[in-house]
Design a protein that fits this description.
The complex is a heterodimer of chains A (about 150) and B (about 700). With about 150 residues, chain A is of the alpha+beta class. In chain A, about 30% of the residues lie in helices and about 15% in strands. Classes of the chains: A alpha+beta (about 150), B alpha+beta (about 700).
């Protein structure tokens, strides 16, 4: 066990955990940030996607000891009140079915749009295909990314 | 969220409850006070019945009793209540009800049965409250109730241009006698039902609020994971000394053939579980998928089988046939793999048991817990969390019982968690099944004889003997053989029909081809025959099935398009009718599925958004598993354990989907399953049209036509 100080959603957190603990479980078990989901634990499904210094990463395979001074953003910190353009687009298109994978989908889409504000269909597909949705909401995910791209993601 | 629910439980319990008893739910005396979820701003409302309360501020709280597994019931149920209440939807707050068998019936998510079961109950719940509010307003104004109307949360007296809000009337209305009978709306007057309404949990889902079972945490609770034996094995010994010394580990306990690791965090427990040194020993047959392939062939030729339906004389029909068509179809086991793995919170205390988590059958969870512990079911409470998918896996209470067992053994509140690997190797799979079909054609190409044998592993009856084309063929024999295996199986979304429909609808395509007939016309001719000259019992509605066939053919311009190959499929399951047409084009010599048209008849469509997503999601699910899903066994051990080797369909692999509904005012039926069964055959029949090759085994990706396609 070691003490780790983390910057998450603009706030300071600390946790006394095993150094190999994936960020996912520190967020959930230690900080109560449960919006980030466990799906596979091997970076295959994308349900655990968060931003590390603005880039989408899979928190289920990211040891807490590797974060250092990196800035982490989770679904809870994407906006104060659910008004990030991607969250708005997700609601407008009414994407969620069961809803479990959607935080990861949103974080992946938000990172894409930050890097590429007007992605082509091919770019949307190439990025979003990394996130599994067992309910099959893929059509709406694709549409919502397009809608979000018209709203100006910062 | 949890606090609100707990508060509700407390208050409801204090008020005595017992408002809903089957159909007599309206014959209640006391009003139940509930705290709605609109937050501190809203005062407690007054209850009208088990589903509904209204606060003086006009906030309408509707309880949704059924488990939400992604089928959209938590949005659809309140829409039905709000419709008959004439509520302002923006003032509606929806709360998930806990298990309460005194107030509610059939708190189950399964069989696409919630809507048909609750349709009338929910309408009456809203209509009764609306009538009581109307009477309260009429009394205040001293006018006949018949002169009053309602709209969006108000009672109106148009003649005197007066109106009162439901909030203003709630208290006095709730004190009126509950009307013995109420008038329900003409479906043509629906204002809310049939519109596009968003998932009521979107605000929480999209901001990452705790909603799901895995999100449930309780101060002082421990985390647990279990190592279970593979199929056909039992526990011989476990060396847990080293694991017990690992950081954060509280205990390692064994029961039956399971080894449970209990600790202070998910990760520490996971590491410890992986480090366990366990010896297993053989306790039963150790089966492999290659054994099953051989076994299926034996069972298909077996003399003895359970006859499911027999019409006419099939032997005579086949003897005198001008042509006989036969084909066999096989599918593998599938795990359900909902993205939220199995988990449950249990706290076994001396005075009772608290359960919280994702279950499609909370009453079963309660009853099995009570049975295990030898206590009365009323000592067990069950709170329902939103489920990260279920697909039938959470119909079973095995993982709930595991949580109860471990909580009891370690005498602490415990959240039991399955890893993804546990989920894929833990059993209760869609059974592996093989079918043999035979059809006898007369000289004119009419199908006069039909035989189906289903053989499967722990599959029960692998046929659905009364499905189309039964009723349309004079001589028919349907039977099945089941092989009992240590590999456990269970209901998987659209049980049995999830593969049977593919086999039946692919085979009918082959028969139509052999008869030299158009596949759509071939089915329509059979339906016409079933209508004019039915054979035996007919358990599907011929006109409704014809309706979806014709609608799909019209929308997809069946047979009229150039440059695409179309495949047809239609199926009746779970009380709804769905026809689908797949469209395939060839790219670099390989078939590519471009589009699927769906035409569905589920009666009244309650929510356009939810209904369209259920159809689209079922098609993606059906195609995905037909294309890629494959769980194989080697000596009782599953060979795929996670998404790196077990393939699910991804976003870049989906076709376009276009959904159409037959418009009618028939009482609605469910949509959680019915669009899945026809999907596989719509694709396979289109691929045949494009390539001349039949796909008879799943997953398709391992068939020749896809070899070399990534």
């Amino acid at each position: 066990m070691s003490l780790f100080k983390l910057k998450i959603n603009g706030r300071d957190y600390q946790a006394d955990v095993d150094p190999d603990t994936p960020l996912l479980w520190v967020l959930r078990d230690n900080f109560g940030l449960v919006g980030t989901k466990y799906g596979c634990g091997i970076a295959q499904c994308g349900a655990c996607t968060v931003h590390l210094n603005g880039e989408a990463v899979r928190s289920c395979v990211m040891p807490v000891s590797a974060i250092g001074t990196g800035k982490v953003t989770t679904i809870e910190g994407l906006s104060k009140d659910g008004t990030h353009p991607v969250q708005q687009a997700w609601n407008e298109v009414d994407v969620p079915q069961c809803g479990y994978c959607q935080a990861g989908q949103i974080m992946t889409a938000a990172a894409l749009l930050k890097r590429t504000p007007k992605p082509t269909m091919e770019q949307i597909d190439a990025t979003m295909t990394g996130n599994l949705c067992r309910c099959g909401t893929y059509h709406r995910i694709r549409e919502a990314v397009k809608v979000a791209s018209t709203k100006g993601v910062k | 969220m949890t606090a609100t629910r707990r508060d509700f439980l407390k208050i409801a319990a204090a008020a005595g409850g017992g408002l809903l008893l089957g159909f007599n739910w309206a014959e209640s005396e006391a009003a139940t006070t509930v705290v709605n979820a609109a937050g501190a701003a809203a005062a407690p409302g007054v209850g009208f019945n088990s589903y509904l309360s209204i606060s003086p501020q006009g906030i309408i709280t509707i309880l949704s009793p059924n488990p939400e597994v992604g089928q959209g019931i938590k949005t659809a149920f309140p829409i039905i209540v709000a419709e008959e209440l004439d509520a302002d939807w923006t003032k509606v707050v929806v709360e998930q009800a806990p298990l309460d068998t005194k107030k509610f019936e059939r708190q189950v998510a399964g069989g696409s049965g919630s809507i048909p079961h609750s349709w009338e109950r929910l309408r009456k719940a809203g209509a009764t409250a609306r009538q009581m509010l109307t009477e309260a307003a009429a009394k205040r104004w001293n006018v006949p109730a018949a002169e009053c109307t309602t709209d969006k949360g108000y009672v109106l007296h148009t003649a005197s241009k007066r109106k009162l809000s439901y909030g203003e009337l709630a208290t006095e209305a709730s004190q009126l006698a509950v009307p013995a009978s109420v008038k329900l709306k003409d479906p043509n007057d629906f204002k809310l039902i049939g519109t596009t309404i968003k998932n009521v949990d979107n605000p929480k889902i999209l901001t990452g609020k705790p909603l799901f079972g895995l999100d449930f945490y309780r101060e002082g609770m421990l985390f647990a994971m279990i190592q279970r034996p593979a199929f056909g094995y039992k526990l011989k010994s476990v060396d847990s000394a080293a694991v017990k010394a690992m950081s954060g580990i509280v205990d390692v306990v064994t029961y039956d053939n399971n080894v449970a690791v209990v600790g202070k965090s998910t990760w520490q427990v996971k590491k410890a579980k992986d480090a366990l040194k366990i010896e297993w020993e053989k306790a039963d047959n150790l089966e492999s998928s290659t054994d099953h392939d051989r076994l299926f062939k034996e069972l298909l030729d077996k003399k003895e089988a359970t006859v499911r339906r027999k019409d006419g004389d099939v032997d005579a029909a086949f003897k005198s046939a001008a042509k006989v068509v036969s084909a066999e179809f096989q599918c593998p086991f599938l795990p359900h793999s909902p993205l939220e793995p199995m988990n449950f919170f249990a706290h076994v205390r001396p005075d009772g048991v608290e359960l919280v988590g994702p279950t499609q059958t909370p009453e079963l969870a309660r009853n099995e817990t009570a049975k295990l512990l030898g206590i009365s079911p009323d000592k067990v409470t069950v709170q329902l969390t939103r489920m990260g998918g279920g697909f039938g896996r959470r119909l079973k209470a095995d993982y709930v019982i595991e949580a109860v067992q471990v909580s009891k053994l370690v005498n602490a509140p415990v959240k039991l968690i399955w890893t993804r690997e546990d989920d894929m190797t833990g059993g209760s799979y869609r059974p592996a099944v093989r079918y043999r079909f035979e059809a006898a054609l007369d000289a004119q190409g009419n199908m006069v004889g039909y035989k189906l044998r289903g053989v499967g592993i722990n599959s029960g009856n692998s046929t659905r003997e009364d499905n189309f084309p039964a009723g349309a063929v004079e001589n028919l024999l349907i039977d099945s053989v089941e092989h009992k295996s240590p590999i456990t199986t269970g209901a998987w979304r659209a049980p049995i029909t999830n593969f049977l429909a593919f086999a039946e609808q692919s085979f009918l395509d082959e028969v139509a081809q052999a008869a030299g007939k158009d596949p759509v016309q071939f089915r329509l001719d059979l339906l016409a025959k079933a209508k004019q000259k039915p054979t035996g019992a007919i358990k599907y509605d011929i006109d409704r099935m014809r309706g979806v066939i014709e609608l799909a053919a019209e929308k997809a311009q069946w047979g009229k398009k150039k440059g695409v190959s179309q495949g047809f499929s239609v199926y009746f399951s779970h009380r709804s009718y769905v026809a689908q047409i797949g469209e395939v084009v060839m790219k670099q010599g390989k078939p590519v599925l471009q589009k699927v048209y769906a035409a569905a008849d589920c009666g009244v469509v309650i929510n356009q958004s939810g209904a369209r997503q259920q159809i689209t999601g079922c098609i993606v699910d059906g195609i995905g598993h037909a294309m890629y899903g494959n769980l194989t066994f080697k000596d009782g051990v599953p060979e795929q354990k996670n998404y790196d080797t077990y393939r699910l369909i991804r976003l870049s692999e989906i076709p376009q989907v276009e959904v159409h509904f037959v418009q009618n005012t028939i009482d609605p039926t469910g949509l959680g399953e019915p669009a899945l069964p026809p999907a596989g055959a719509a694709v396979a029949n289109a691929i045949f049209k494009a390539t001349g090759k039949r796909l008879r085994n799943q997953p398709f990706v391992e068939e020749d036509v896809f070899k070399g396609v990534s």
